[in-house]
Amino acid sequence: xxxxxxxxxxxxxxxxxxxxxxxxxxxxxxxxxxxxxxxxxxxxxxxxxxxxxxxxxxxxxxxxxxxxxxxxxxxxxxxxxxxxxxxxxxxxxxxxxxxxxxxxxxxxxxxxxxxxxxxxxxxxxxxxxxxxxxxxxxxxxxxxxxxxxxxxxxxxxxxxxxxxxxxxxxxxxxxxxxxxxxxxxxxxxxxxxxxxxxxxxxxxxxxxxxxxxxxxxxxxxxxxxxxxxxxxxxxxxxxxxxxxxxxxxxxxxxxxxxxxx
Length: 261
Known about the structure:
Elements: H1 4-18, E1 25-28, E2 34-36, H2 39-46, E3 51-57, E4 60-65, E5 69-74, E6 79-85, E7 94-100, E8 103-109, E9 115-119, H3 126-129, H4 142-149, H5 156-160, H6 171-181, H7 194-218, E10 244-248, E11 251-255
Parallel strand pairs: 2-9
Antiparallel strand pairs: 1-7, 3-4, 4-5, 5-9, 6-8, 7-8, 10-11
């Protein structure tokens, strides 16, 4: 499942390539990809608009359009966009095509889990409106982070995965963030000391920023810079102790039982 760095990378790429372009036509090859409105209305309302900006909120892409509309896209596991000449052959996994004159922006999705919604704004689209703080945004300050954690009884990992608290972090980056912060994923959040809360805050920002930079420059795989890569039987890069695997917060979790406390 794409996490914040993956979606941010796609948003930046689209911002460079399609912002300012006029949509001259729309084709929906897979109606199931369109959650709302009905595919016929989706085509009608999207055609003729101009792409003003491409942003990200949590794990969602926000393609802001003229006429007060936002195309909200969740990539899910295999969704992606490619800008190609209009005459290029259509890939079998192409689900939606936005035409920009002689070029197409094509949404491909092998697993068919990705989806699109056309809404007046993200504020009127429940799943986005309910998201928590943006961990790379200006509003995510040490003070707000401490306030967010105050009194929370869940494990540290479960809180990192709660999209209504902090948006965009998934299983892979939660493990990396906790390893970098030297914090055990099953530890109750309310038992962290102030210094540890600060360490976790810095780890969140550092790991996500590094991931965005890496993906923007090199693309996948992320394993080239992640220290905890979801692999069994490897040694902790910091202390050499075997990495442990456990079910924590309902997710398969990789951590070092020796140096994560």
